[in-house]
Specification:
Elements lengths: L3 E3 L3 H7 L3 E5 L2 E6 L2 E3 L10 H6 L1 H10 L6 H12 L4 H15 L4 H8 L13 H24 L6 H9 L3 H11 L17
Parallel strand pairs: 1-4
Antiparallel strand pairs: 2-3
Helix pairs in contact: 3-4, 3-5, 4-6, 7-9
C-alpha cells in the first residue's frame, strides 16, 4: 500500500516523510514511509508547455505552492496551459485545483482566473458548481412563471418577486410541481413556506 501525503508547508512535509514505526515491545512490526508531495518535491510549474504535457503535475504545483511567493505566477501559467485541452478536460483540472486550494486566500485568485467553465466535485462549492446551480435555479423560476402564465393564473408583483428571489432548488422544484395543478398563483405557497 502506498500512503501519499500532500503538504503546502515545508516543515510539515519534512515531518510527514517519516519513517513512522509501529512496534510491540522490542520488535518493529511495521515501518511507514509516506510518499510526500510537498514544496521540496513538486516543482513550481510556470511554463504553459509543461502544463499542456503534464496537467496533473501542474495542478499539484498550483495546490502545493499556493502559499509560496510565486503562487500567482504558477496559477496564471496553469490556467493558461489548461485552456489548451478540450473543454471537459479543462473543466476537470480547473476544479481539481480549486478543490485542492480549499479555503486558502489563493482560491479566490484561482476563481477569478476560471470563468464560464459543470462540476466534477459536487458539494465543494466550486465556482462551476455555483454557476451550474444558479443556472438550474433560473431555469426553474422561468418554468414556474411560464406554467402559471400558460394556465392563465394571475401573478402579482409580490408573488413574482418571491419566486424570482428564491435560490433554493428544492423549494423551486416543489413550487413548480404545485404550479401544474394550483387554482391560483398563491397556492404555490403553504403554511410551512415563509409568510408572503
Amino acid at each position: 500500500m502506498l500512503l501519499v501525503v500532500v503538504c503546502r508547508d515545508r516543515t510539515t512535509a519534512a515531518w510527514a516523510a517519516g519513517p513512522f514505526q509501529c512496534a510491540v515491545g522490542p520488535w518493529t512490526t511495521q515501518v511507514t514511509r509516506p510518499f510526500v508531495l510537498g514544496p521540496q518535491t513538486v516543482p513550481e510549474v510556470t511554463d504553459e508547455t509543461v502544463v499542456a504535457q503534464r496537467p496533473a503535475l501542474a495542478a499539484l504545483s498550483a495546490i502545493i505552492h499556493s502559499q509560496g511567493p510565486r503562487a500567482a505566477a504558477i496559477l496564471e501559467a496553469v490556467a493558461r496551459g489548461l485552456v489548451a485541452f478540450p473543454p471537459d478536460v479543462t473543466k476537470y483540472w480547473f476544479e481539481v485545483v480549486e478543490v485542492g486550494l480549499e479555503s486558502t486566500p489563493t482560491r479566490e485568485n484561482w476563481r477569478k482566473l476560471m470563468q464560464d467553465v459543470v462540476t466534477h466535485f459536487p458539494g465543494h462549492g466550486t465556482l462551476f458548481e455555483e454557476k451550474y446551480l444558479e443556472g438550474k435555479a433560473e431555469g426553474k423560476i422561468e418554468d414556474i412563471l411560464r406554467v402559471l402564465t400558460v394556465r392563465g393564473l394571475v401573478i402579482s408583483d409580490h408573488i413574482r418577486e418571491r419566486i424570482t428571489d428564491c435560490t433554493d432548488l428544492d423549494t423551486l422544484t416543489t413550487w413548480f410541481e404545485r404550479s401544474l395543478t394550483a387554482a391560483a398563483a398563491e397556492d404555490l405557497f403553504t403554511d410551512e413556506d415563509p409568510a408572503l
